[in-house]
Design goal:
The structure holds 2 protein chains of 2 kinds.
Chain A: E1 2-6, H1 9-14, E2 22-24, H2 35-45, E3 51-57, H3 68-78, E4 88-93, H4 97-103, E5 115-119, H5 125-134, H6 143-149
Parallel strand pairs in A: 1-2, 1-3, 3-4, 4-5
Chain B: E1 5-9, H1 12-22, E2 32-36, H2 38-50, E3 60-64, H3 70-83, E4 86-91, E5 98-102, E6 105-111, H4 112-115, H5 118-125, H6 131-136, H7 140-157, E7 162-163, H8 164-171, H9 175-181, E8 188-189, H10 191-209
Parallel strand pairs in B: 1-2, 1-3, 3-4, 4-6
Antiparallel strand pairs in B: 5-6, 7-8
Classes of the chains: A alpha/beta, B alpha/beta.
Chain lengths: 169, 210
């Protein structure tokens, strides 16, 4: 079973995490592609592996307010095709969790079952690895309960011409 | 600087509705050349394929992504890369705000709703000097502060004592953050000093969020 660690831009340049993790990076979308498409392609590419946990940053890039790591987490839970949809998710970052919760409703995923947040000012990646080794087997994930916790707004183009034209945008 | 930002929109109705809500007329901003529908739209669109140097007068090119063919989008992308310009694609089909480096240039993708917002007004009122204002509006400083906090946190993880000049070089922080938070004489920097700087930044992030 793999324990994936998705690196943010800062870590990828400067930090060597414990070998317990299989490290990876989500490539940014190309100029003509939506972030959702890039994330989906990446996550589907992991489907052939047996995944126990995914440890990921709040944001993949240096632009923290993009919150792209939180978006990846939502994709993992909400993409039915993923075999590891219910895997343990551990988000990491440098802010306290109350600050993140104030930044965006996307942070509500941090308070859902089998999701954890680690402030790396307080816990090292070695400690995260130890935690994952000892995490108890979860009950099957209750997605209805998960949906009660999170807020997904309809896309801004819902019910515009974009909602009926499926390609070319 | 006059007209250093070019906006190309093919849907006058959309612009009218959004700007009415914002109580602004985009033609009132001297820094902005607003091409909105009509023959001008087709003239400017055609220039992408026939004479891309035509856009040399503009530092920032903002355009409705869906109004372009894939080939036109590729030409613009390559142009901003080589000419160190900023390209902004907005569209109803874009879900999230994303700012990326494209070679020597930058690309901002943003939804139409987030583009025609108070962020645009702030950006134009400040002469279009900070693209983060268009991306994140009044939270652009917060975005930079959190970015700096993350950077310093990871830097501390493997830190060994270094001269201040090396630390600043490694961290590559925005100048206004250095001026505000790095108040120390040149010399060796202790880990605890970096931790203290980060605590102050975190406290300010909290204050900004209220």
């Amino acid at each position: 079973m793999k324990n994936i660690l998705i690196l943010n831009d800062i870590m990828a340049d400067n930090y060597s995490p414990p070998t317990f993790f299989e490290t990876d990076k989500v490539s940014p979308p190309n100029y003509d592609e939506d972030l959702n498409v890039a994330i989906t392609n990446y996550l589907i590419s992991l489907n052939n592996s047996e995944i126990n946990s995914v440890t990921l940053p709040i944001s993949l890039s240096n632009n923290f307010l993009e919150l792209s790591g939180l978006i990846v987490g939502h994709h993992i839970r909400l993409t039915k095709e993923l075999m590891y949809r219910a895997a343990t998710l551990i988000f990491y970052g440098s802010l306290s969790i109350d600050v993140i919760a104030k930044i965006s409703p996307l942070a509500s995923i941090l308070f859902t079952p089998n999701v954890h947040y680690v402030n790396i000012n307080e816990f090292s990646f070695d400690k995260i690895a130890d935690f994952i080794k000892n995490v108890r087997q979860q009950d099957p994930l209750n997605f209805d309960k998960f949906l009660e916790f999170i807020r997904i707004d309809p896309p801004a183009n819902y019910q515009s011409h974009h909602s009926i034209v499926m390609t070319g945008h | 600087m006059i007209n250093s930002i070019l906006l190309i929109e093919d849907r006058p109705n959309r612009q009218r509705i959004f700007t009415q809500d914002l109580k602004i007329d985009l033609n009132d901003f001297p820094i902005l050349k607003n091409i909105c529908g009509g023959d001008d739209f087709y003239l400017y669109k055609e220039k992408i394929s026939s004479e891309i140097a035509f856009f040399g007068a503009y530092d920032i090119i903002i355009i409705h992504r869906s109004a372009l063919t894939p080939e036109e989008r590729a030409l613009l992308r390559d142009y901003v890369d080589v000419k160190s310009k900023i390209l902004v694609f907005f569209s109803g089909g874009i879900s999230y705000t994303l700012l990326q480096k494209i070679g020597k240039g930058q690309l901002l993708t943003v939804s139409s709703e987030d583009f025609y917002s108070e962020n645009l007004v702030l950006f134009l009122n400040n002469s279009g000097e900070e693209i983060l204002e268009l991306a994140f509006g009044k939270f652009w400083e917060l975005n930079m502060l959190v970015g700096a906090h993350e950077k310093i946190t990871f830097y501390i993880l493997k830190y060994t004592k270094k001269p201040l000049s090396v630390v600043l070089d490694d961290l590559d922080l925005p100048q206004w953050i250095i001026d505000k938070y790095v108040k120390m004489e040149d010399g060796m920097v202790e880990k605890d000093q970096l931790i203290a700087i980060n605590k102050t930044i975190h406290a300010d992030i909290k204050k900004k969020l209220g």
